[in-house]
Amino acid sequence: MFKWTVLSLFLYFPEDKSEYLPAAISLGVFAIAAFFTFRFFVRISKKEAMKAKELEERLQHQINNSGENS
Residue 3: enclosing H or E segment and its boundaries? Predict the structure, then answer.
């Protein structure tokens, strides 16, 4: 009996459905912000991967050149 009373304190379903509007708006704003943040991290990650690949190629080229000179 006590469990259901405590749990029912956290459940609130309003009769006036317009009370859902602020929650839906904030959910939408945060979902859009999360999407753009994710895209930002993906873009930065791709740039870093390209830099790492170029560095790896340069180092490999230097290793190959020093091996030919020996």
Answer: helix 2-8
